[in-house]
Structure formats: C-alpha cells, structure tokens
Predict the 3D structure of the following.
Amino acid sequence: MKAGTWVSPADGTVVSHAEVIARASRSRVVLLGEQHDRADNHRWQMHVAAGLLAHRADMVMGFEMFPARLTPVLMEWSRGELSESGFLEHSEWQEVWRFAPELYMPLFRFCRDHAIPMIGLNCRRDLVSEVGKEGWDAIPERLREGLTPSRPATPAYRQYLFDITGGLRPGRAAQSADDPAFDRFVRAQQTWDRAFACRIADVAQQPDAPLVVGIIGRGHLEFGHGTPFQLTDLGIGEFMTLLPQDAAAPVVPNVAEAVCYMAGQSVSGPT
C-alpha cells in the first residue's frame, strides 16, 4: 500500500486523507497513537496535527510523556518563553520520559511555532505502582491527583494485555488473562488509561472547548480499550483514534477508526 494511504480497519476500505482529517476535526478528541521509539510515528503525528489545525484553530495537545504537574512548563514553551535546552531541563525530560528528545522535538516545535497550548496527561509513577499493588481504594484522596477510579477492564481488554505481555511480569507470571496474578498489572495499566482520559476530559468538557489532540502510546488506544474506554465512561463519546500502520503489516479489523501507512519499517531516532 502506498505511503500516506488511509484505510478504515472496520471494512478495509481506502479513505482519503482529506476525509479523515475533516472528520477528525469535527470530533471533540483525536487520539494519535505511537510506538515511542519511532521517529516516523512522531513525524506522522505532526503532519496529522497540522492538518487538524487547518480546520480547527482552537486546539490543545496533550502528551503522555509529561505528568500534569508540568503543564505550566509546557505552556511556557508553547508561548515561546523557553529555549529548547530550558524546556528539556524544566520539563524534567530525562527523569519523566528518557527517550531521545530528538524523537519528539518536531512535535514540540510545531506546538511552539503555532502557539498551541500543551498539557501533560500523565500522573506520578508511584501512583501507578501503588494502585497496581494495593488497589484504588487504598490510595488517600490527597494522593489521587484529582483522578477518578477506572471503569473495570473488560475481559477483552484483559485478554489484549495478556496477549501482548504473555502474562509475564517481574517476579510473577499469570497463566491466563483471568488469573488473579494478572490483576496487579491490569490495575496499573488502567491507572495510566484513566489518567490520560481524565486530563483530556477536563479540557474537552469545558464550555466552548477546543479540539483536544492526545499523543499517546498505541497500547493505550488499540481496539477502543484503554483510554478510549475510559473517555466513554467519562462522557466523551465523540472521539477518533488514528494510528500509523507499517507497510508490511496487515490491517487488523477495528484496531482504530483509521490507520495511515508509513513509508517503511521501524525508523528510530538518535539513541
């Protein structure tokens, strides 16, 4: 399939770029998936965001890479008030994400160049591990970062997570998706899913809300599980999930609302 071709995984039909972008621009939320270490995925996200901006001047971009507490720093960057080195320092890049910054800088520069507000979608790492270990109810209110409890995972989502991990986690192994030994991992994953959804909903539910574009790992988005499932629970039903698609890989039915073919195989940025 030619690079740049969009396909609907619902039925395998080819959809025009203009149609996908126009439809997405009419949504309340657009979720752009990625494989974190792939530069081509991030270039694709920037190109899609540029298309959306042509339809919607009122846009906010949310990033999994940053916890919400760093949103003031992201806003400073978007307003052009920080140098690139200052942005990476004050956003604690090496502590909160650690992937090569060159992978993401085109996206960040795009937001700065167009004065697009940026927000952090993530939560503190300790919250994820604490919920995984103890459960949501064990977390004191003051430590929940304003998040609400996740809607419980469906059997299909548990199976999805089991299939991509094999059920193997450090120090323990689950025999099936239903194994209680897998609960801890599922709870932790859902904490991220819910955090991203809550941060997005906080913006999307405002009066005269802008279009919210979420930059999120595809494992939190595929098949309507993860963050899309939690967005629906929060009352945000008008969203689209768009994913990059490797040329050599088959399109999996219903993995997203639309997928876009990449020019080649895995292309990572500097290490």
Residues 6-125+194-261 form a domain with the Rossmann fold fold (CATH 3.40.50.11550). The radius of gyration is 18 Å.
